[in-house]
């Protein structure tokens, strides 16, 4: 995060996600509009403005819901996300504090702590169990684009403020992750 201008991670993830999936959403919208147009061909009646607004709103809402879901899936597949959850599941003190089974919830994309760019990633993952709930904080970086991610720190903060450290790098490269 050395640059003087940084966008929140959710915006960067959204922009990279749009690059990958905009074509499929656009195809869905075109198909829907063609279907709508084909029902009106041959007819002299035009659709009332209220129905057009409603129809457009339904398509736009469905598209937004699909984008949100796919963004969450993109986050959950990231190697630093997966490794942080592995550290949580293998840490007895954290399991005792939360209880089992553990529930991992969707990230709040509007949270300013969640930040991902080309070299750094910070996530605040909501987790809960029968005994308590909290957030799993993950900090990761990489030396250059398309290189392996390295976990910097993983800790669990419970709702009562207690912090449980799950990972701090020692001098070795055991925290190196696969290239995404």
TrEMBL record:
Hey, what's the signal peptide range on this chain?
1-23
TM region(s), chain numbering: 53-71
An annotated GO cellular component of this protein is:
mitochondrial inner membrane
Species this protein is from: Physeter macrocephalus (Sperm whale)
Q: Name one Pfam family in it.
A: Coa1
Q: What is this protein called?
A: Cytochrome c oxidase assembly factor 1 homolog isoform X6
Q: Which UniProt keywords apply?
A: Membrane, Signal, Transmembrane, Transmembrane helix
**What's one GO BP annotation on this UniProt entry?**
mitochondrial respiratory chain complex I assembly
Checking InterPro entries in the record gives: Coa1
């Amino acid at each position: 995060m050395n640059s003087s201008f940084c966008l929140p991670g959710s915006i960067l993830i959204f922009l990279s996600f749009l690059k990958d999936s905009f074509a499929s959403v656009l195809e869905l919208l075109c198909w829907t509009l063609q279907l709508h147009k084909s029902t009106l061909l041959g007819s002299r009646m035009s659709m009332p403005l209220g129905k057009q607004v409603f129809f457009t709103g339904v398509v736009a809402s469905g598209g937004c819901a699909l984008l949100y879901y796919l963004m969450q899936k993109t986050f959950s597949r990231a190697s630093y996300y997966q490794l942080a959850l592995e550290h949580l599941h293998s840490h007895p003190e954290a399991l005792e504090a939360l209880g089992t089974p553990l529930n991992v919830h969707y990230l709040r994309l509007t949270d300013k702590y969640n930040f991902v760019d080309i070299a750094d990633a910070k996530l605040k993952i909501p987790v809960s169990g029968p005994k308590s709930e909290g957030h799993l904080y993950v900090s990761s970086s990489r030396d250059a684009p398309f290189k392996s991610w390295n976990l910097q720190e993983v800790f669990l903060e419970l709702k009562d403020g207690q912090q449980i450290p799950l990972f701090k790098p020692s001098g070795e490269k055991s925290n190196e992750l696969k290239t995404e």
